[in-house]
Design brief:
mainly alpha; 183 residues; Tetracycline Repressor, domain 2; 70% helix
Length: 183
């Protein structure tokens, strides 16, 4: 991929995180990158092609990041909660798939398919790491919903409150030792 194509995708991703599929135009992307609109069209003939490419790249990068984090932290729940928390505390604040997922029924088919692929990748990785399918769905629903609500309320602590149940230690507390008195 050329540097220009990557810069176009970066600009589109930033705008999609803030405004979804309808949150950008080729003219705006061209201005962000400092190229002519025709250059955006050269690399991505349609808006659908661009959005699908952005989400496909995001899914690939996310899958790689999850694998790196799972090599350090074996609890997949903690990895996903932390990853989405990092996103909500970033400049752009939203996972582009969370933004687009809410309107997936209205997205062009190729974009909707990539958004679905992202969530399927997350779900499958969580299940592969031992979560029952229902728990994986519950986790994904909670963390993406928490991102949306925290962003809408402009209160990032909402994410931590909503995900607190997942960050509590699941290991039982050690049994209290009983002291034996000498008789």
């Amino acid at each position: 991929m050329s540097d220009v194509a990557a810069a176009i995708m970066d600009a589109a991703e930033r705008r999609m995180r803030r405004g979804g599929f309808n949150g950008f135009s080729f003219r705006e992307i061209a201005a962000d990158v400092g190229v002519k609109s025709s250059s955006v069209h050269y690399h991505f003939p349609t808006k659908e092609n661009l959005a699908a490419a952005v989400i496909k790249r995001y899914t690939t990068e996310s899958a790689e990041m999850f694998e790196r984090e799972l090599a350090k932290e074996t609890d997949p729940v903690k990895v996903w909660v932390k990853a989405f928390r990092v996103t909500i505390h970033s400049q752009d604040r939203m996972c582009p798939c969370a933004v687009l997922g809410g309107s997936s029924q209205d997205l062009p088919p190729e974009v909707a398919a990539e958004v679905k692929r992202f969530f399927k990748m997350c779900h499958d990785k969580l299940v592969e790491r031992g979560l029952p399918p229902d728990e994986a769905s519950h986790l994904l629903s909670t963390i993406t919903g928490a991102q949306v609500v925290a962003n809408a309320m402009n209160d990032l602590s909402v994410y931590d409150s909503a995900t607190r149940e997942f960050t509590k230690s699941k290991t039982p507390a050690p049994a209290k030792a009983t002291s034996r008195r000498a008789k």
